[in-house]
Amino acid sequence: MNAKDYLAHLHTLPCVVTFLLLGERVKSEVVHHPESVRDELSHYAGIPMTDDWHKTLHRESRRGFERMTKLTPIDLLAGTIKLLMEAK
Description:
Elements: H1 3-10, H2 16-22, E1 30-32, E2 47-49, H3 51-69, H4 73-87
Antiparallel strand pairs: 1-2
C-alpha cells in the first residue's frame, strides 16, 4: 500500500487516544505525525486522533501529553497497529 492510501486508511480508524484511555471508538479527525519531518515514510507512523486530542498534544508538548495521559509515542503507535489489525 502506498503512503497516500495508507494515510487515507488511517483516517478511517477511531481515535487511538480515546481507544487506549477509555476503550471507546470515537471517529478520528486528524492524523498526528510523531516527528516533525514530513516525508512519504512519515505517514506510516501516523496516529489517528480527534482534533481535541491533537490540539492538546501540541499545546502540552509531548512530555506534558505523556504525563497527562500516561501514553508514550510507542503506546500510540502500538494502539494504531492494534486498530489496523482489527480492521482487517
